[in-house]
Amino acid sequence: MKKGVFWRVILIALTVVVAAIFFLPNTPLFQGMPDWWKKTMPGKGIVLGLDLQGGLHLVFEVEGDKAVEIATERIASSLTGILERKKIQASVKKDGLFVVVTPANMDIRKVIEDTYPVLTLAEGSGVLKYRLSAKEVQRIKDTATDQVLEIIRNRIDQFGVAEPVIHRQAENEIVVQLPGVKDPKRAVEIIGKTALLEFKLADDESPLAAELPASIMPGEETQIFERFKNRIPEGDEILFQKVINKETGVVTKRPILLKKETLLTGDLLTEARVNIDQRFNEPYVSITFNSAGAKIFEDITAQNVKKRLAIILDGNVYSAPVIQERIGGGNAQITGSFAMDEAKDLAIVLRAGALPAPLRTLQNVTVGPSLGRDSIEAGSMAGIVGTILVVVFMIFYYRLSGVIADFALVLNIVLLLGAMASLNATLTMPGIAGIILAIGMAVDSNVLMFERMREEVRAGKTPRAAVESGYKKAFWTIFDSHVTTLITAAVLFQFGTGPIKGFAVTLSLGVAINLFTALIGTKTVFDIIQSKKEVKRLSI
Amino acid sequence: MIELVKGTKIDFMSKRIYAFIISGVFSLLGIIAIVQIGLGKANLGVDFAGGTAVQIKFAQSVQLHDVRLALEEEGLKDFDLQDLPTENKVLIRVKKQEEKLGGFSEKITQILSQKFSDKKPVIDSTTEIGPKVGSKLRKDALWAILVAVAGILIYVAWRFQFRFGVGATIATFHDVLAVLGIFYILNKEMNLILLSALLTIAGYSLTDTVVVFDRIRENIKKYIKEPVEVVINRSINEVLSRTIITSLTVFLSALALFLFGGEVIHDFALAMLLGVVIGTYSSIFVASPVVVLLGKKR
C-alpha cells in the first residue's frame, strides 16, 4: 500500500470518529454514556430551530421618541420645583418635545441653562422654548434600548424559559426567541408590558367628578373624552378603571377624574409578591417600597387623608381606595380581580421594572410543537427516500464505482451532521431541505469524475491512468461549481434570518465537506482497490 | 457500461433561435412577476407583505367554506383561506397593512377554537409581521439576488473569459426569472422560502454551466481549425451525459423532498425541481449561445 493512502485512511477514519463524537448528543445513545464521557465530551450537538421544536420569535421596536418625551416631561416637572424653591415666578409647561417657560428673562434662562446643560434653546423671544440637544436625544434612545434589553432579560428569567435568545438588532430593535414556550400569549404580554406603575390623587373636589357616569361599556372611552374634553380642569385627566362584576362576569369601565401629577412611581419598589385575599379568595399583588419610596408614600398618605389615591398601571386605574390614615412602612396592594396567572405576571413585571419606553411589535412568529414534530418526521422520510433513490441510481449506473460514490455520500452525510453538531448549528426545516439537496449534490462530483474516467477508458488508457487523469481533469470543474454555490450560500447567510440562515449554514457546510469526500474519500478507495493488484477493467 | 446518452451529435447551436424565444417568454414572465411583487400585487407571503397568517390543524377534515363563514360571522374581512386537505390543515392569511400588530391571530384562533371545538383545532403556527419589516425584507430580497448574481459573474469572469461570465450570468438570471415566472403563473406564494430556493438554484444551475464551459475552453484550444459553433456543439454533446446525470441526482433528492418533505417545504421542493430542469436546459441552450453571440474570438 502506498504510504499516502495509509495516511488518508487514517484521516478519513479520524474525521468520522470526531464527527460521531460531536453528533452523539443528538442520539439517545448519549444518555447511556458513562459520566466521565458526559462531563468531558461535547454535549450539545445540533440545536433544533424554533420552527422544529416550537416556540416564539419576536421582534420589538423600542419607541425611543416616547422615552425622549418622558425625559422632557421629567425635566419640565423638576424645573417647576427648582424655580419655586428659588422663589422665581414662572410657568413651566411641556409641549410635545419642548419645555416652554414664561416669562422669558435672563435670570430664568440662567437658572435653566445652569441646571440642565442638555437643553438647547429653540426659541427665545416672548417665551423660552427648550428642547433636548440632539446628542442627548441620541443618548436617551440608546440607553432606552439597552435598558429595555436588560429588563426583558430579567422578566424572561423570572418567567422561566430554557435557553432564551435575547439580543439587540439594528439601532432600536430587540429580538427575543423563546424555544418551547407553552403559552405564547402570556409570554408576549410579559415582555411587551410597559409596566409603568403610578400613584395619583383623584380630583373629587372638582364639580366634574360628580358628573362623570359611574360606569360605561368598554369601547366607549373616546366618547367620554369627547364629551368632557373642554371641561377637564387644568392639571387633571380622565382615566378608566376596569370593573368586573363578580357574579355576572360582565366587564365595565369606570371613568375617574385624576390630578395629572404623578406622586410616586414603581421605580422605588423593592419587592412585588402575589398574595391571596382571605375574604374573596382572590389574588392580589403586594408591593414594598425602599426607604425613599416608603418616605414619599408616608408623606402622600399623611397629607391626603380622606382623599382617594389611584394606583395606575400603564394608564389603567387598578384601584382608587380612600386613604384612611397615614401609612408607614412602604407597603401597598394592587387589587383588580386578577386571575392567578395575571397576578403572578404582574408581580414579575413590577419586580423587573418598567420599560423606559413602550415597545411596538414588529414581528411575532409562533410555532406550535406539533408542526415541528410533523416537519421532522416528514424531513426524515424525505431524507431516507432521497438517499435510497440516489444510492440505488448510482449503483445501477456506475456499478462498483457507484458503490464507491455511495460510500462518499454516506461519509458526506456523517461529516455534515458532525460539523453541524460541532458548531452547535441550528437545524431548521429549510436546513433539513439543505441536507437533502446536499445528498443529491454530493454525488455530482463523483459523476463528473466517473464520466471523465469513462472518457479516458474509451481513449484506451489503463484503469489506473484513467482514474488518475479523471481526477486531475475533473478537479477544477468540481472546484468552480462548488465555489459558485458557496457564493450564493454566503449571500443567503448574510441576508437571511432564522430558518433561512439555517439553510445557508447546511448548504455551505455540505458543499465544503463534499469537496473533501469527493477528492479525498473516493480517491482513497480507488487507490486501495488498485494497490492490491493491477485492475484489468474499471467497473464504471 | 450503462450509458444514458452516447455519442450524440445533436446540433444545439442551430436551435438557439427557438431556445431564445422560449427563454425570452419565461424571462419576461419572471420580470412581470418582479414588477408585480414591487407593486405588491403578486401573491406575496406574509413575510414580504406584512400581515397575519395562522395555520390550524384539525383532528378531522373541515370544509373551507365553513371556516370562511365562521370567520365572516365574527366580522373578519379581507382574508385568504387555503387548505391542505391531506393533513386537515387550514391556512388563514390577513394581509392588512396595520401599524400596530397583534389581535388578528388571537381573534382567529379564538373564533375557530370555539366554533370547531368538536374537531379539536390545534395551532400549528401564527405569524404576524409589521409592514415595516415586510418592505425591508422585500428590498433585502432583491438585493440578495443581485449580489449573488454579481458574485457569480465576477467569479466566472475571473475563471473564464469575460463573455463566459456574461453567458453564465445571463443563464443564471434566466433560471431564477423562469422559476419565479412559473410560480407567478401558478399563483404560488412568494415568500422567504422561495427566495432561498431561487438563490440555491442560482448557485446550483451554474454547476452544469461550468461543466459545459470547461469543456468548451478545453476543446477550443484543441480543435483550432473548426468553427467555434462546431466546437461548442461538440463540447455540449461530449458532456451531455454528465450534465444530465448530475442534474438527475439532485432532481431525485428534490423529488423526495417534494413528495415526502411535508407542507412547509413543498413549494421549496417544487422550485428546486423546476430550477434543476431549467438550469440544465439553460446551460445548453442559453449560456453557450450567449457566449457565441458575444464574439468568436478564441
Tell me the layout of helices and strands.
The complex is a heterodimer of chains A (about 550) and B (about 300).
Chain A (H helix, E strand, L loop, with lengths): L2 H21 L11 H6 L6 E2 L1 H4 L1 E8 L1 H22 L5 E5 L2 E5 L3 H10 L3 E5 L4 E5 L1 H26 L5 E5 L3 E7 L4 H9 L4 E5 L5 H5 L9 H8 L7 E9 L6 E9 L4 E2 L3 E9 L4 E8 L1 H13 L5 E5 L2 E4 L11 E4 L5 H13 L6 E9 L1 H54 L3 E2 L1 H30 L4 H33 L3 H34 L8
Chain B lengths: L15 H24 L6 H4 L1 E7 L6 H10 L5 E6 L4 E6 L9 H12 L6 E8 L1 H29 L2 H24 L6 H31 L5 H33 L5 H28 L5
Antiparallel strand pairs in B: 1-3, 1-4, 2-3
Polypeptide structure, described:
- The complex is a heterodimer of chains A (540) and B (298).
- Chain A is of the alpha+beta class.
- Chain A has three domains: 215 residues, Up-down Bundle (Multidrug efflux transporter AcrB transmembrane fold); 74 residues, Alpha-Beta Plaits (2-Layer Sandwich); 173 residues, Gyrase A, domain 2 (2-Layer Sandwich).
- Helix content of chain A is 53%, strand content 20%.
- In chain A, the strands form five sheets. Chain A has a six-stranded mixed beta sheet, with helices on one face. Chain A has a four-stranded antiparallel beta sheet with strand order 7-8-2-18. In chain A, strands 3-4-6-5 form a four-stranded antiparallel beta sheet.
- In chain A, a hairpin with a 2-residue loop joins strand 15 and strand 16.
- The longest helix of chain A is centred in the C-terminal third of the chain and has 54 residues.
- Chain A is elongated.
- Chain B folds into two domains: 192 residues, Multidrug efflux transporter AcrB transmembrane domain (Multidrug efflux transporter AcrB transmembrane fold); 79 residues, Alpha-Beta Plaits (2-Layer Sandwich).
- In chain B, helix 5 packs antiparallel against helix 6.
- With 298 residues, chain B is an alpha+beta fold.
- The model of chain B has no long low-confidence stretch (mean pLDDT 87).
